[in-house]
Amino acid sequence: MSEKKKESVLAGFKAFLMRGNVVDLAVAVVIGAAFTNIVNAVVKGLISPVIGAVGTQSLDGYKSCLKSPCGIGTNGQPTGVEILWGSVLNATLTFVITAAVVYFLMVLPMAKYLARQEARRKAREGVQETMEITELEVLKEIRDTLVAQRTNGARSAAPGGSRDAF
Known about the structure:
With 166 residues, this protein is mainly alpha-helical. Helices cover 74% and strands 9% of the residues.
């Protein structure tokens, strides 16, 4: 491969990596992985024990037998058909709890923060817009006064009229 082609491939790869979307995505993945540990710790350390105090900590043991007999046969193979509804319920509850933790600890506070920032920005823009309108009104008044003075001056300078000094 020629040097020029190597440089263009490397330059293209570098441009691809330095695009805002790729860098932002990489940062999001790293932060997401770190945040997963926090969410898992909250779920395992706080929420699961509370649920365990009311019921059971693990729902994985709950199952129903669809075709009897269910269990482990003499040869070590499972017999019957078991529905592991406890595992499905456990995964569903884990998802709901994780989603609630993410929403109440991250999404809701961030949304409130961004709303406050937007309100502040709009308030600043409103003040600036009011000042601009006020300045525009003053400039219009000055223009109208100058036009009136010119018009009055032109009438005074007409033959037979008296001219007033300003």
